[in-house]
């Protein structure tokens, strides 16, 4: 047992911190939130040069061949800084291709993803907003060698700038909702697709994507027909851990900024950090951060080793969701009025804590998985 | 990051588990968890029996240097604590084995080590701690019980309190004011003494449920050999701080809660309310799942603390965070479990009590972890002052 980062991970971490500090200042984050695209193509290109989009793609497909654990290290840094853009959407879509793609699909898509030439996103949620298979109603109907997709997806991250959308469709109705789910890689600019950005708390460009008689070739099916749900579960599991890592970085920033400010800000002729009412709250924030950290690292290690970790991933997500919201809330509270201003950096984290909570399944969704895994009938 | 165990560790883990599982079968009815060893003779005998069994295998000296009879390393100690926690097995004297022994190894003279370590390793001598006083709790350095040197003895006078298991213990370790004129933190000495010495009076303090794990100890001209000190004379504060850093990973308590959760899940699966298993109640599911997440987080942090200890990189902050977290998790668990049990949550061990009445006990026993070993409020100060670098209270 050794809970330290490897040398490679330390290098990756330092490189990411330096890069983001330089290339992604909060002035840019603020600008991107207000922009239509929601990401910087220039920073995206530079990230590709560093190999981030291809980090977990095997070398034979033009990637770096790093482990899932290494990815977690990178995402923690990204979360510390906040980097708006389609990185997590592209990486989680990559999980699907790596898991279920044919050799042809991998050869075609993965090198381009690694090069930063393709932005991908995955369309899961629909009208009723649930993360289980019962929510999937967008239909894919066979028509000759093709399929025709009809219906509306919601909360599709960065779909407005994506090159491909992995659409999770229903190809068969039945009592068991997990059966009859099929995934397709759809050209985001295909005829019949329309996309509209939804106004959300984190301004993170979640989109409504409407499919109207969208034709997709059978060869663009990802995985087997009707048997797509286990792949989606895999993506939700890995995505949950990945999101936790990003949240952990954000939690770190919230704690550090609050502690630093409490040492500077003077009231009653002393730094406010000298008051135990604040000290104990900050100690609690720190404790919550550390408990989150090792829970996430444990899940990431298990995922990296290929060990079954649906329980640990859901435990991490259910736990970190609440810690992030709570830590960001207290960061605002301990800063006082100043952190309620749009010009302050803490609100970025507070707003994002809600978005992070929802992504890849909210707290109650993951608690139900945990309830099953601990043996509740 | 690598959380895997080596093949050798897996083998030892299995052995720790096998032995503890066997010992579990020999629990007397009055033994209902660690605190009960101080209350019932039968439970105390069981504690001594387990200690002897562990001593035979050398497990009371895990992580000690070989020259003092040690074997294995800190990781073995963690795996052993996990097994004991899960099966609820006593026999590892929290004061002698877990607190005093590592302190002696780091701070005591060779003579003291040679005299006191072997009986601890053999499971023969049980210890208690004599720190708090009626007017010195969290602010321990303001203690007033004196040990005045006279010839080759210290003469101790005063009162200690909240001494867990003092009525059963053979020996005690305490801090006493040896130089009343010196400044705070440089006026006390860490002294070891026989609890049966003339002049010592021990009284049980009824705990809020009527049991008595705690005692108060009176000293009336108690003569202790002057050689029985740890660290430098008048510098006992440094020893106190050293000792306080040991064994706060909480892995034992966490595994005990993990077992408690398993038992409670089984109870919910087979107990019907409103015509269906309690396990089907979505509130029960949600609340138990929330607790399970916290438990896993606590365990992960405990591994972190153990990993640091193993590499001699002990972080006070992490240890304090772990202590706060697992002890408050224990509070929440007790509240939650007694909620789920409904009216049965108030029943003491008896034919009416589900799960041996463990949750009624836990409803008050959790204070033992939140209040002792440095209250959680003091732990928060430690994190704030020493970890986050915030200004100290004036």
Shape of chain B: globular
* Binned strand content of chain A: 15-25%
Q: Tell me, what is the CATH class of the largest domain in chain A?
A: Mainly Alpha
Q: Strands of the largest sheet of chain A, in order across it?
A: 1-4-5-8
Structural class of chain B: alpha+beta
Q: What's the CATH architecture name of the largest domain in chain B?
A: Up-down Bundle
**Largest interface, by Cβ-Cβ below 8 angstroms: which chains and how many residues each?**
A-B, 49 and 52 residues
User: What is the tally of beta strands of chain B?
Assistant: 10
Radius of gyration of chain B from CA coordinates: 21 Å
Please, how many domains of chain B?
A: 3
- The H-and-E topology of chain A, N to C, reads as HHHHHHEEEEEEEEHEEHHHH
Mean pLDDT of chain A: 97
Describe the sheet with the most strands of chain A: 4 strands, mixed
Per DSSP, the total helix count of chain A is: 11
State which percent range the strand residues of chain B make up. 5-15%
Helix content of chain B: 40-55%
What is this structure's SSE topology?
The complex is a heterodimer of chains A (377) and B (394).
Chain A: H1 7-23, H2 26-34, H3 41-50, H4 68-81, H5 87-100, H6 103-115, E1 120-123, E2 139-143, E3 146-157, E4 164-170, E5 181-187, E6 193-198, E7 206-217, E8 221-222, H7 229-264, E9 266-267, E10 270-271, H8 276-305, H9 310-335, H10 346-358, H11 363-373
Parallel strand pairs in A: 1-4
Antiparallel strand pairs in A: 2-3, 3-7, 4-5, 5-8, 6-7, 9-10
Chain B: H1 7-24, H2 41-56, H3 74-87, H4 94-107, H5 110-121, E1 127-130, E2 146-150, E3 153-161, E4 171-177, E5 188-194, E6 200-205, E7 214-225, E8 229-230, H6 236-244, H7 251-270, E9 272-273, E10 276-277, H8 282-310, H9 316-340, H10 358-371, H11 376-387
Parallel strand pairs in B: 1-4
Antiparallel strand pairs in B: 2-3, 3-7, 4-5, 5-8, 6-7, 9-10
Helix pairs in contact in B: 1-3, 3-7, 4-5, 4-6, 7-8, 7-9, 8-9, 9-10, 9-11
